From TrEMBL, chain A:
Membrane topology, record value: Peripheral membrane protein
Lineage: Eukaryota, Metazoa, Chordata, Craniata, Vertebrata
Name recorded for this polypeptide: AP-3 complex subunit mu-2
Family matches, as SUPFAM superfamilies: Second domain of Mu2 adaptin subunit (ap50) of ap2 adaptor, SNARE-like
PANTHER family: AP COMPLEX SUBUNIT MU
Native organism: Cynoglossus semilaevis
Subcellular location: Golgi apparatus; Cytoplasmic vesicle membrane
Keyword Transcription belongs to the record: no
CDD domains reported in the protein's UniProt record: AP3_Mu_N (cd14837)
GO BP field: intracellular protein transport; vesicle-mediated transport
Domain of life: Eukaryota
UniProtKB/TrEMBL annotation, chain B:
Name of the protein this chain belongs to: AP complex subunit beta
Gene Ontology terms for molecular function: clathrin binding
UniProt keyword Mitochondrion present: no
This protein's UniProt keywords: Acetylation, Membrane, Protein transport, Transport
A Gene Ontology BP annotation from the UniProt entry: intracellular protein transport
InterPro entries hit by this protein: AP_beta, AP_complex_bsu_1_2_4, ARM-like, ARM-type_fold, Armadillo, B-adaptin_app_sub_C, Clathrin/coatomer_adapt-like_N, Clathrin_a/b/g-adaptin_app_Ig
Organism of origin: Cynoglossus semilaevis (Tongue sole)
Pfam families, per the entry: Adaptin_N, Alpha_adaptinC2, B2-adapt-app_C
Record's subcellular location: Endomembrane system
Coiled coil: none
Lipid bilayer topology: Peripheral membrane protein
Length: 445, 918
């Protein structure tokens, strides 16, 4: 009995060996499939031999098993390949690989592809990709050679393949010229591959946005379970020539966990805590950082809540009040409260002191668009919830999700000291903006 | 107008229309047509019929058009090789173009066309491009060598491209260096033994310099390559670490993880008292935490790797528990991984917070996650003794919620808590019993039954409870049936007077009405035990149970070490050795961590693993689930082997199966399974050939006992969770004996050895039970000699396991016997013959030979040659061993014969020839 099953196993192994002879061994990404929300493959690109799209059946199986699209596992094994996927803009980007590769490498690359599409077409949707399918194909070909990434920096790509614009399309149609660059991109091999040479602007400007997102879990009683800040400094630099910038902070000690754009000179940072770099041209993320020590993370919004159900009454009581705290006098804006109410809730009868609230009886999603919080008049949402007759008291406690924005403040207290430019003679216009946002900000009830 | 217009075509004559447009005189129309063709290609339509027309557009000054045609060529050249030749001239011309972009494009595209005739023409342009003045062309050409190697490895070697590629490691341009490294790594993967990547301090220095300046992707290639280097001493190790550390701040998470791999590996070399060691530990935590704020897919891979890192060096993240707290909208795969790491990091210091979190999770909506969370509470109780009480009360709270699946999970874990802390928390049994009716999952039912049986003396109505289960005995799963049988026997042994009827009932249900051999056999054993020797029955059934391990599902140390060397790879995601991932198993070198400096024995790999083993926490049962599950459940279930990855063809997986198989068959008096990874033709005829071997002793009349092959390792410790068996067969005074050395290389005590044999037609079976004085302590080894007899052509299924068996593993590597015998025969007795003009493949040959009783014992494939190892016995009692070499496409076979009586070789050869040519 057992030997029978083992024979089967052996047969299988032999079968695999047989296949192995005919397929080439590829180290890196073999193919990419783009799959939309309804499960159609709408684009495929192969870098070596063509892999049949039937390989995606394994992906579809996993997709069916997953309750939500977000829950499809990112790495799926199949008998002869691995499928590594990312989900962005409701599109699955599925890479097919054939042997051992670093999965992060593949995932990072796929995200880079999405970023590039977004950069080129403004949005990354199925329609946009289909509208620009030839450019997409040219881009994919330029980004990967033999499964190795080739050019992924957007400014280099843009020199090789010009992004489509309405004007260019018209001009091309009339003159018959092309949207493919004829020259080797200048940045490609220089020591500053992220910057092309010969950049010229009439208005020289450099803007930096310090954006911080608070991720927090607050428990029932209002005490903080975890809180951390994910910060980024995004830059928009339009400067002529080869400017060399330095950016210094009032309190660089905050930044002990940072990830830099490749342009930042790491040694200088290590030694002096100064960011010194030749910036890429245009928009880029200069650095991202992480502040996790909790005493540095102030919680700007508190919630008083009472969501309860009484046994036997088929009714629930709902009471929610928000108030701002530790905001250094800045207004908390664009507040949006949402919560997934228990499945047993049929409907709600609530009144909001400000803003609009909606409840979707199908998805049980309650969302309340509060707007700006006025510290003198705290926003609240009160009322009752009706339960299905005969249903027992729901077991789960809904979690409250809060989104908000605070302008002109970095909640960690990070402050830029000064920005200097060397290497060029003109005086650039400089600007720094701060903003704090809620990331995954959750309050348990 | 957008590109979507390319999709709109008239249904009829689409190809025809395109053909006309492609041949149009107008450039613009041509280009539009090619775009349409490409658009069709992207959605998987077959437009290969347009091949000649598209290729005709190739000679153009328009770069975009050229690129589009190249795109098309790469897709379809393989299906139209003759047509593809038409393109060669243009390629060769383009490789001389003054524009480096076009030169690079041409060489790049040519390499992607997998047509032999094209590759021939590729060599010259490639050679020029590798030495091109423009680095862009050089770096493209470097990758092209890898492509060419993939198509025709021999050609690449003959043309000397490998040396040129190695020279490029010293190129002045970092991008060229990175691509050369990438190409060499890919090539090296298919040449496991070549020293292509000869890493020495000089090349290391070049790579480290290039690391700072090349692109993020190049950094990954270089870091992965650095990880293969073994530093000479701790100083070199430290200096490499210092130069790699800045990569931890890179924005690309793959770079970060590759850097972590290098650091984790080289850290092993650093003495622990070194200041730098502590600094490095501190530097590793922030980047790992940062990875968790990235996109969920990245988080998942990071978490799987952190799981390994936490097991190897828990100190790195011991203060970072909070970053692993689950957010309610994390994807499920992230949630489950976070949970696992939370348990690994749980300690007395943070257990209160962890428990509060776990309790919170147990009220979430996602059922799978809730179950895991409940289980995690149980694991905490077992791991952190001080928290056990708190965990139990948390579990009781959860049982009070009456949520069905929560209650069931809680009962399953409470059973484990009872095992770990006997006689401590029995007060909760009453609460558990209240929920008896709501249990509908086999695992929970089995757990509850186990509890009732185990504590039968304290539960007044234990008999009633068990009786209630008995009513639907046949509808229960095997797991529950087995458990019920054992529980009732326990009950009977504890309260014999009132429960006689019950035990009769269950025994007859198990033995007479069941089709399940496991259940039947267990029933018979109990029955016989109870009827012959109740005292012995008590000793067996109510034996003291071994303690269960503190920490569950830790990865076995040797595997963990290997996985640490593969951080960031698929192996690290699946926690399986890399050999399971590379098809065909070639190119896999087992990597080990370098030993720490200052330890004298650090040179030998064995000493390293031993050292590592002692560092690991005590009382670890290395396990990937099965074994531990079995230990926990003890006599609960036939272990369910975790489904192997569909892809895994490797030896390791075979061994895992084996283990499952071996355990599985325990109850059913099965047989040790031949390793699954052995060649397929192996298992059926093997008994015959072994029979030959054993019979020969009589036939040839060799002095008794003179043939005693040395012991060989049958079962390496790595594959059997620490149990190593080496052995041999000998014949003493006419009795065949199996001599074994059993070594416990795990960190826990092993007990309860039993043995079983593969069913074999010659009826080789143990003549007595195996005598292993248990328990076998860690690192102890023991010599066992087991007499064997041949009781009949088909072995009768006598239950061998009259002990409560817990661990059995005997693997017959018949191949070993063959090999030993082969070596035993003097070389001068070997003779070689050629069989000419034979057109069979190895399988057919093997079958044919089998028809005249020449049996294939093993086969393997070396360099495209199939090697068949065969044995035969002549009627006069002389036997011979043969090696048959079959090369695909070559009609000439080579037979090497070894025989104690060389004079028969000629006749054997003649019969070989006669059969194979017939």
């Amino acid at each position: 009995m057992l030997s029978g099953s083992l024979n089967g196993k052996q047969g299988e192994i032999r079968h695999q060996k047989g296949i192995n002879v005919s397929l080439p061994l590829t180290k890196m990404i073999h193919s990419v499939f783009l799959i939309n929300a309804s499960g159609d493959i709408f684009l495929e690109k192969h870098w070596k031999s063509v892999v049949s799209r039937s390989v995606c059946d394994y992906f579809f199986e996993a997709q069916e098993r997953a309750t939500e699209p977000e829950n499809v596992p990112p790495v799926i094994p199949t008998p002869h390949h691995y499928l590594i996927s990312v989900l962005r803009h409701r599109i699955f980007f599925v890479a097919v690989i054939q042997s051992e590769v670093p999965p992060l490498f593949v995932i990072e690359f796929l995200h880079r592809v999405v970023d590039t599409f977004q950069d080129y077409f403004g949005v990354c949707t199925e329609a946009a990709i289909k509208d620009n399918v030839v450019v997409v194909y040219e881009l994919l070909e330029e980004m990967l050679d033999n499964g190795f990434p080739l050019a992924t920096e957007s400014n280099i790509l843009k020199e090789l393949i010009k992004p489509p614009t309405i004007l260019r399309t018209m001009v091309n149609t009339i003159t018959g010229s092309t949207n493919v660059g004829e020259q080797l991109p200048t940045g490609q091999l220089s020591v500053v591959p992220w910057r092309r040479t010969g950049v010229k602007y009439t208005n020289n400007e450099a803007y930096f946005d310090v954006v911080e997102e608070i991720d927090a879990i607050i428990d029932k009683s209002g005490s903080t379970i975890t809180a951390e800040i994910q910060g980024v400094i995004d830059a928009c630099v339009k400067l002529t020539g080869m400017p060399d910038l330095t950016l210094s902070f009032m309190n660089p000690r905050l930044l002990d966990d940072v990830s830099f754009h490749p342009c930042v000179r790491f040694k200088r940072w290590e030694a002096e805590r100064i960011l010194s770099f030749i910036p890429p041209d245009g928009n880029f993320r200069l650095l991202s950082y992480h502040v996790s020590s909790q005493n540095l993370v102030a919680i700007p919004v508190y919630v008083k809540h009472n969501i309860s159900f009484r046994e036997g009454s088929f009714q629930g009581h709902f009471d929610l009040t928000l108030w701002p705290k530790q905001t250094m006098g800045k207004a908390v804006e664009s507040v949006l409260v949402s919560s997934q109410l228990p499945r047993g809730v049929l409907n709600t009868n609530l009144s909001a002191s400000q803003g609009i609230y909606t409840f979707d009886p199908v998805t049980k999603l309650l969302s309340w668009d509060v707007g700006k919080i006025n510290p003198q008049k705290l926003p609240s949402l009160k009322g009752t919830m009706s339960l299905q007759a005969g249903a027992s008291k729901p077991d789960e406690n809904p979690t409250i999700n809060i989104q908000f924005k605070i302008q002109q403040m970095a909640i960690s207290g990070l402050k830029v000291n000064r920005l200097d430019m060397y290497g060029e003679k003109y005086k650039p216009f400089k600007g720094i903006k701060y903003m704090t946002k809620a990331g995954k900000f959750q309050v348990r009830t | 107008m957008t590109d979507s217009k390319y999709f709109t075509t008239t249904k009829k004559g689409e190809i025809f229309e395109l053909k006309a447009e492609l041949n149009s005189d107008k450039k613009e129309k041509k280009k539009e047509a090619v775009k349409k063709v490409i658009a069709s290609m992207t959605v998987g339509k077959d437009v290969s019929a347009l091949f000649p027309d598209v290729v005709n557009c190739m000679q153009t000054d328009n770069l975009e058009l050229k690129k589009l045609v190249y795109l098309y060529l790469m897709n379809y050249a393989k299906s139209q090789p003759d047509m593809a030749i038409m393109a060669v001239n243009t390629f060769v011309k383009d490789c001389e173009d003054p524009n480096p972009l076009i030169r690079a494009l041409a060489v790049r595209t040519m390499g992607c066309i997998r047509v032999d005739k094209i590759t021939e023409y590729l060599c010259e342009p490639l050679r020029k491009c590798l030495k091109d003045e423009d680095p862009y062309v050089r770096k493209t050409a470097a990758v092209c060598v890898a492509k060419l190697h993939d198509i025709n490895a021999q050609l690449v070697e003959d043309q000397g491209f490998l040396d040129t590629l190695k020279d490029l490691i010293s190129d002045s341009n970092p991008m060229v260096v990175a691509n050369a490294v990438a190409a060499l790594s890919e090539i090296a993967e298919s040449h496991p033994n070549s020293n292509l990547m000869d890493l020495n301090p000089q090349t290391m220095n070049k790579l480290l310099t290039a690391l700072n300046e090349c692109t993020e992707w190049g950094q990954i290639f270089i870091l992965d390559c650095l990880a293969n280097y073994t530093p000479r001493d701790d100083r070199e190790s430290q200096s490499i670490c210092e130069r790699v550390t800045p990569r931890l701040s890179h924005a690309n998470s793959a770079v970060v993880l590759s850097a972590v791999k290098v650091l984790m590996k080289f850290m092993e070399m650093l003495p622990k008292d070194l200041d730098y060691y502590g600094t490095l530990l501190k530097k590793l935590a922030p980047p790992l935490v940062t990875l968790l704020s990235a996109e969920p897919e990245l988080q998942y891979v990071a978490l799987r790797n952190i799981n390994l890192i936490v097991q190897r060096r828990p100190e790195i993240l011991k203060h970072e528990m909070k970053v692993f707290y689950v957010k309610y909208n994390d994807p499920i795969y992230v949630k489950l991984e976070k949970l696992d790491i939370m348990i690994r990091l749980a300690s007395q210091a943070n257990i209160a917070q962890v428990l509060a979190e776990l309790k919170e999770y147990a009220t979430e909506v996602d059922v799978d996650f809730v179950r895991k969370a409940v289980r995690a509470i149980g694991r905490c109780a077992i791991k952190v003794e001080q928290s056990a009480e708190r965990c139990v009360s948390t579990l009781l709270d959860l049982i009070q919620t009456k949520v069905n699946y929560v209650v069931q999970e809680a009962i399953v874990v409470i059973k484990d808590i009872f095992r770990k802390y006997p006689n401590k928390y029995e007060s909760v049994i009453a609460t558990l019993c209240e929920n008896l009716d709501s249990l509908d999952e086999p695992e929970a039912r089995a757990a509850m039954i186990w509890i009732v049986g185990e504590y039968a003396e304290r539960i007044d109505n234990a008999d009633e409870l068990l009786e209630s289960f008995l009513e639907g005995f046949h509808d229960e799963s095997t797991q529950v049936q087995l458990q019920l049988l054992t529980a009732i026997v326990k009950l009977f042994l504890k309260k014999p007077t009132e429960t006689q009827e019950l035990v009769q009932q269950v025994l007859s249900l198990a033995t007479q009405d069941s089709d399940n051999p496991d259940l039947r056999d267990r029933g018979y054993i109990y029955w016989r035990l109870l009827s012959t020797d109740p005292v012995a029955a008590k000793e067996v059934v109510l034996a003291e149970k071994p303690l269960i391990s503190e920490e569950t599902d830790l990865i076995e140390p040797t595997l963990l070490e290997e996985l640490i060397c593969h951080i960031g790879t698929l192996a690290s995601v699946y926690h399986k050795p890399p050999s399971a991932f590379v098809e065909g198993n070639h190119g896999v070198q087992h990597k080990g961590l370098p030993g720490s400096a200052g330890s004298a024995e650090s040179e030998s790999p064995d000493a390293v693993s031993a050292g590592a083993a002692t560092e690991a926490p005590a009382a670890v049962i290395p396990s990937q689930g099965d074994l531990l599950g079995d230990l926990l459940n003890l006599d609960l279930t036939p272990p369910a082997t975790t489904g192997p990855l569909p892809h895994s063809g490797g030896m390791q997986m075979g061994a895992m199966d084996l283990l499952g198989g071996g355990l599985d068959s325990l109850m059913g008096a099965g047989f040790g399974a031949p390793p699954a990874a052995m060649p397929p033709a192996f298992s059926a005829p093997v008994s015959g050939s072994l029979y030959d071997l054993f019979d020969l002793d009589n036939g040839v009349g060799m002095p008794l006992g003179s043939f005693c092959p040395p012991k060989t390792v049958w079962l390496p410790a790595m594959k059997a969770k620490g149990l190593e068996i080496s052995g041999t067969f000998v014949r003493h005074a006419g009795v065949i004996q199996m001599e074994m050395t059993i070594t416990n290389k795990a960190m826990s005590v092993m007990t309860g050895f039993a043995i079983q044999f593969n069913r074999n037609s010659f009826g080789l079976a143990p003549a007595g039970p195996i005598q292993v004085p248990s328990p076998l302590s860690p690192n102890q080894n023991i010599e066992v000699s087991l007499p064997l007899n041949t009781v009949g052509p088909v072995m009768k299924m006598e239950p061998l396991n009259n002990l409560q068996v817990k661990k059995t593993l005997v693997v017959f590597l018949f191949r070993q016997v063959f090999l030993a015998t082969w070596k035993d025969i003097p070389n001068e007795n070997e003779s070689q013959f050629q069989i000419k003009d034979c057109h069979l493949n190895s399988d057919a040959a093997s079958n044919k030979l089998q028809s005249i009783n020449i049996f294939t014992i093993a086969e393997r494939t070396v360099d495209g040659q199939d090697m068949l190892y065969q044995s035969m016995k002549l009627t006069n009692g002389i036997w011979a061993l043969a090696e048959l070499k079959v090369q695909a496409g070559n009609p000439n076979y080579t037979v090497s014969l070894k025989c104690r009586a060389p004079e028969v070789s000629q006749c054997v050869f003649q019969s070989y020839e006669a059969v194979l040519k017939n």
